[in-house]
Design a protein that fits this description.
The chain is an alpha+beta fold and about 750 residues long. It is about 45% helix and about 25% strand.
């Protein structure tokens, strides 16, 4: 692929930034998260293009730290003009990208939009881009403009970093010349009067003796007007105390150099943020303190950009209301205040009625205009001390702080419904929606923000059941009345994007030694609104929607990564769906998880259920056999649930057979015990280990040991544990065996 013009100059500029392998930038990560939410894409990246690789400076939805440059879309992007986006609606049908490894392999991209990121020199160092796994022919001018505006924020950050590096380089050169400057005041003045920074020479008592002419441009004063003044004369009153402590450290000899940032008063009365660097100067002959050299640099614009980026990270880009992150932060703060001061407050959740109908009928512009109007009306009906947040879609939440009685919350709910009911006009159409409101009352006894929010959400469902356009207060006695919120396919995709899924690990114990033989990885989903969702509820939906493929790949990668930190004799068992095995990329997914974690193949055990066996195909069987040839173990999970017969143990080779807990619960039944004896004997004769699941009592343990099981897991030993608790369990197990 051809390189952009001035390639060598571009690479040198990138090297000078010293940013390729530096620490993550939270502000840039925040921009990526915003882009992913704004455009509803799984991947958003800030990329820097090196000679042969592309470094992920910030990312959302991508695990790698970088990729090869060859075949990457951003290599096309940086060859364009600075600030001009490159949009490829369907990568697979575009000759420039159809053969890219990113299209043919992971992440199987089908849509790309990127904007070049340029320095002041006009050199494109990288891109800000988004990718989707499906073509996007609806990416219009509005989305392109929004992408370009987000790219400007990233580009501003890079340019500020460039200026900072240049400043540090200037400082190094200045320090090198310091000895010569001491010998000649004329040379010092020459340096000071040719830089855009303000240079100040102060006596040992910090009185200003010289101020460079750049003070006129930066702060509007004549240099002579500041001779004889001291450093605190122009400081903002709110910054004076902290800056005074810095000066005290300098003058008392506790430090010889200090860098600070505070506000200085401009001659016109405004306040500017100044980056201040102060150093003690010593007499070149005696080495005694001779005075102080101070440089002032105007960073007001940089501070404004930083505040804007921080604001974007905590606010919804459409309505400028606090987002979910800021809502939870303020809710926890309100709970802490109530606990300390015995105050009361309320949480109100609000859904718009008929919003989807308007969105589908008049399009997203009408929906966006409606949401912006609703946001303004909600702000108008609350106090300045209250919080109105947009949680996503047409979901809003309000924190009503420090109230005296519940009637204040119901009165606010009434005002909300009345305000939202007023129609708005959009393109000569009158649009009207209603609102359902749920209320939860909080006191100092409410210490769980999630539980309190769920109470308001439960009340919201009561309001919807009551006919909508009304409110309900949470009633603990009726909490179980509304039906459980149904899951949708998009919920799983959104949960993956938010990072709602986690893994817990349940130990598998070797019955012969009593030691931990490994762990089974179990997927958990804690929905921010619906709470803990059982795997039996979301796994079938994930399989039906196809989301089981990316979810299963994430589980496999995360489990292998965790297991790689354990002692080498411990295995990790991961449940695999039949749908995953039907994918031609299954072997590649497994091998990629092993390679990225460094886990040995013999430590990985893939668990398949009996339902898988009745759907088996020759290609699936071949995949199983190839995986076993690589050293990966295959386990038959939940054996005995009625989908297969003992003949499958003959036809297919398994390293482990896991006995369903229903056999264990029914151990008192002589016929069940006879069947279990036969299963265990057959499996052992075929060279498989036998794991008993769901052992919860000593009697059950004696039973599975008697029938010949080789491994066991269940609450008798340990419940599933978060990853951070596994290390302690392993350590205690090793200590027990050593003793």
């Amino acid at each position: 692929m051809a390189h952009p013009p001035r390639e060598q100059e571009r690479l040198e500029a990138l090297r000078r930034l010293q940013i390729l392998d530096s620490t993550p930038e939270p502000h840039l990560d925040a921009v990526c998260r915003i882009a992913a939410d704004l455009f509803d894409v799984p991947i958003a990246l800030v990329l820097l293009v090196d000679e042969s690789r592309i470094c992920f400076k910030a990312r959302w939805g991508a695990e790698n730290a970088g990729i090869a440059r060859e075949g990457a879309f951003c290599d096309l992007t940086i060859q364009g003009e600075a600030g001009v986006p490159l949009v490829i609606p369907d990568l697979a049908n575009d000759p420039r990208s159809a053969q890219s490894p990113l299209v043919l392999g992971e992440p199987q991209a089908r849509f790309y939009a990127g904007v070049p990121l340029a320095l002041r020199s006009g050199l494109n160092l990288g891109t800000f881009c988004i990718m989707d796994r499906a073509p996007r022919h609806d990416f219009a001018e509005r989305e392109t403009r929004q992408l370009r505006e987000l790219a400007l924020i990233v580009e501003a950050h890079l340019r500020l970093h460039e200026a900072r590096i240049a400043a540090e380089s200037d400082a190094v050169r200045w320090l090198t010349a310091e000895g010569a400057l001491r010998q000649s005041e004329q040379r010092f003045r020459l340096l000071a009067e040719t830089t855009s920074d303000v240079i100040i020479w102060s006596g040992i008592d910090t009185t200003r003796l010289y101020v460079s002419p750049s003070i006129r441009t930066v702060l509007g004063y004549e240099p002579e007007a500041l001779i004889g003044t001291n450093p605190l004369d122009l400081i903002h009153p709110d910054d004076a105390e902290s800056f005074g402590r810095v000066l005290d450290n300098l003058t008392q000899g506790r430090v010889e150099h200090a860098s600070t940032c505070q506000r200085y008063r401009h001659q016109d009365g405004s306040w500017l943020f100044m980056e201040v660097s102060q150093s003690l100067a010593r007499d070149p002959v005696t080495g005694d303190p001779a005075g102080y050299v101070t440089s002032l640099r105007d960073v007001t614009e940089r501070k404004a950009h930083e505040r804007r980026i921080a604001h974007l990270a905590l606010h919804d880009p459409l309505t400028d209301l606090p987002n979910r992150t800021l809502f939870w932060e303020r809710l926890r703060g309100e709970i802490a205040h109530a606990a300390q001061h015995a105050t009361h407050f309320a949480v109100l959740t609000c859904d718009l009625d008929r919003f989807k109908l308007i969105n589908d009928t008049f399009g997203h512009p009408a929906g966006d205009a409606l949401l912006q109007t609703i946001a303004r009306r909600l702000r108008a009906v609350v106090r300045d001390t209250d919080t109105v947040a947009r949680l996503g879609g047409d979901e809003f939440a309000i924190i009503l702080g420090r109230i005296g009685h519940a009637q204040e919350a119901t009165a606010l709910a009434t005002r909300i419904i009345q305000a939202i009911n007023r129609p708005i006009t959009f393109n000569d159409h009158r649009l009207s929606v209603g609102a359902s409101v749920g209320i939860a009352l909080g006191t100092g006894d409410n210490i769980d923000a999630v539980a309190l929010f769920r109470q308001s959400d439960t009340a919201l469902y009561h309001a919807k059941d009551a006919g909508k356009n009304t409110y309900r207060i949470h009633d603990p006695a009726g909490e179980a009345l509304p039906p459980a919120p149904s899951l949708h396919k998009s919920d799983i995709r959104d949960a993956m994007r938010r990072g709602d899924f986690t893994l817990n690990y349940q130990p598998i114990v070797d019955l012969a030694t009593g030691a931990i033989a490994g762990f089974e990885a179990l997927t958990r989903w804690r929905h921010p609104l619906k709470g803990e969702i059982a795997p039996s509820a979301f796994i079938p939906l994930a399989e039906e929607s196809g989301q089981i493929i990316p979810l299963g790949a994430w589980v496999l990668k995360e489990a292998c990564r965790a297991a790689a930190s354990w002692p080498g004799h411990l295995k990790i068992a991961v449940n695999v769906s039949a749908i995953q095995f039907q994918q031609i990329s299954m072997e590649e997914t497994v091998l990629r998880a092993l390679a990225s974690s460094g886990l040995s193949p013999h430590r990985l055990e893939l668990e398949i259920t009996e339902t898988f066996l009745i759907q088996r195909t020759e290609s699936v069987i071949r995949t199983m056999r190839r995986l076993r040839q690589l050293g990966i173990r295959i386990a038959l999970d939940d054996f005995g649930t009625g989908y297969s017969s003992l003949s499958y143990l003959h036809q297919l080779s398994f390293d482990t057979v896991k006995i369903d807990r229903s056999f264990i619960v029914a151990m008192a039944n002589p016929r069940m015990a006879t069947v279990l004896n036969a299963i265990v004997a057959l499996a052992v004769n075929l060279g498989a280990r036998v794991t008993a699941e769901g052992v919860e009592t000593p009697e059950q343990l004696d039973f599975v040991r008697h029938v010949g099981c080789t491994e066991v897991q269940g609450f008798l030993f340990s419940p599933p544990l978060p990853a951070h608790d596994v290390a302690g369990l392993i350590a205690s197990d090793q200590a027990r065996l050593a003793a």
